Amino acid sequence: xxxxxxxxxxxxxxxxxxxxxxxxxxxxxxxxxxxxxxxxxxxxxxxxxxxxxxxxxxxxxxxxxxxxxxxxxxxxxxxxxxxxxxxxxxxxxxxxxxxxxxxxxxxxxxxxxxxxxxxxxxxxxxxxxxxxxxxxxxxxxxxxxxxxxxxxxxxxxxxxxxxxxxxxxxxxxxxxxxxxxxxxxxxxxxxxxxxxxxxxxxxxxxxxxxxxxxxxxxxxxxx
Length: 223
Ligand SMILES: *[C@@H]1O[C@H](CO)[C@@H](O)[C@H](O)[C@H]1NC(C)=O
Ligand SMILES: *[C@@H]1O[C@H](CO)[C@@H](O)[C@H](O)[C@H]1NC(C)=O
Ligand SMILES: *[C@@H]1O[C@H](CO)[C@@H](O)[C@H](O)[C@H]1NC(C)=O
Ligand SMILES: *[C@@H]1O[C@H](CO)[C@@H](O)[C@H](O)[C@H]1NC(C)=O
Ligand SMILES: *[C@@H]1O[C@H](CO)[C@@H](O)[C@H](O)[C@H]1NC(C)=O
Fold this sequence. Notes:
Layout: H1 2-28, H2 31-44, E1 52-53, H3 55-67, H4 85-95, E2 105-113, H5 119-127, H6 131-137, E3 144-151, E4 159-166, H7 177-180, E5 189-190, H8 204-219
Parallel strand pairs: 1-3
Antiparallel strand pairs: 2-4, 3-4, 3-5
The structure holds 2-acetamido-2-deoxy-beta-D-glucopyranose (5 copies).
Keywords: Membrane, Signal, Transmembrane, Transmembrane helix
Signal peptide: 1-25
InterPro entries: CAP_sf (IPR035940)
């Protein structure tokens, strides 16, 4: 009987730790937002204005690389050319971008890598790795930006990154329906959304918390 009560307590404790792990990974897990910060830091270092973080652009950036997910080569180049029409016919509807608010896209950078990279490495080695992409980043026309990250396959495969820039003055473009929530995405990760990255960014803290829980439980003779 005593043993059974302890067991019950441990299940409560484990559940609580898991909850903490899930919540904390949600709060820290959006690497697409980190990339937007890096883009803005790089711009302000050249006295260029900061760009607004647009979830509508971010989600469409993610849709773009979703279409290109199997087109990352062994040497980390993306050989993929979605049609222009896909933006209004596929990407925007999949995100819940309200079509009348579809603005002007002023730049696009796409890259991939066989391994997961943290935001500073992804910025330097994948997104902004040459003069061409650096000049896109530093274009004066942009006003807003969105970043998307996705994994080619659910549990493995290369990662893809995409930054989409818009040149619209006001904040009323690429508006997501349902009061800015848009359509929930089942995978990947994009900037400007309050939510976490699922398969786009690694949920490191969650895995470590789980290992920690198992360690605690086994060291107390639970198993
Ligand atoms: C991806 O690569 C395949 C094979 O090389 C090609 O047929 C396809 O058109 C590419 N996808 C896009 C969207 O460009
Ligand atoms: C900046 O972007 C705009 C829109 O894409 C383009 O027309 C223009 O040539 C770019 N300017 C530079 C300096 O690259
Ligand atoms: C901006 O990005 C470029 C390309 O990755 C890099 O060479 C440069 O050092 C960066 N500048 C700053 C201030 O971070
Ligand atoms: C890139 O730009 C820098 C500075 O403008 C220049 O020194 C360098 O030669 C350029 N590199 C290439 C490969 O064009
Ligand atoms: C656009 O929204 C951002 C925050 O989302 C805000 O900081 C910025 O001032 C807004 N710009 C305009 C022109 O309303």
